[in-house]
Design brief:
Helix content is 78%, strand content 0%. By secondary structure, the protein is mainly alpha-helical. The longest helix is centred in the middle third of the chain and has 32 residues. It starts with a helix and ends in an 11-residue tail after the last helix.
C-alpha cells in the first residue's frame, strides 16, 4: 500500500501544480481553461484510485480495529464532501468571472467543506467564499 500512497501524494502535487499554472495563465484564458480541464480529469482519476484502491485497503486493515474503522469512516465521509465541493468548484470556473485568487479560494473551499456540510449544504464557488 505504500506505493499507492506515494503515487497519490505525487498526484496531489501534480494537481496543485496544474492549478497554479491555471492561475498563472488566467482562468479566463483559453490555455487556463485547458489546464483547468486537465486538473478536472486528473482529479477524477485520482478520486477513482482512492475509492477503488485506497479505501478498500484501509477498510480491510480496519476490520479488527474499531478505532481505525471509525477513523477511516470519518475520513471517507469528509473526503466525499471535499471531493464533491472540489468538482463543483472546477465546474463553476467555466461560468464565473476570474477576478479572484484561485489558490485562496480553493483552499478556503476545502477548509470550509466539512464545517459547512455539518451546518447546511452550501455550494463551494468563488462567489460563496469571502
Amino acid at each position: 500500500m505504500s506505493m499507492l500512497v506515494e503515487r497519490l501524494k505525487r498526484e496531489h502535487g501534480l494537481l496543485v501544480d496544474t492549478l497554479n499554472k491555471v492561475k498563472e495563465l488566467g482562468v479566463g484564458s483559453r490555455e487556463g481553461q485547458q489546464k483547468l480541464l486537465s486538473a478536472k480529469i486528473g482529479l477524477l482519476a485520482h478520486l477513482k484510485a482512492e475509492d477503488g484502491q485506497l479505501y478498500p485497503a484501509l477498510y480491510q486493515e480496519a476490520k479488527n480495529n474499531e478505532a481505525l474503522r471509525r477513523t477511516v469512516e470519518a475520513f471517507a465521509r469528509d473526503m466525499e464532501t471535499v471531493s464533491k465541493d472540489a468538482l463543483h468548484f472546477l465546474r463553476s470556473m467555466r461560468t464565473e468571472a476570474p477576478a479572484w485568487n484561485l489558490r485562496r479560494t480553493l483552499a478556503a473551499c476545502m477548509r470550509s467543506s466539512a464545517r459547512e456540510s455539518a451546518k447546511k449544504k452550501r455550494a463551494c464557488t468563488p462567489s460563496t467564499i469571502s
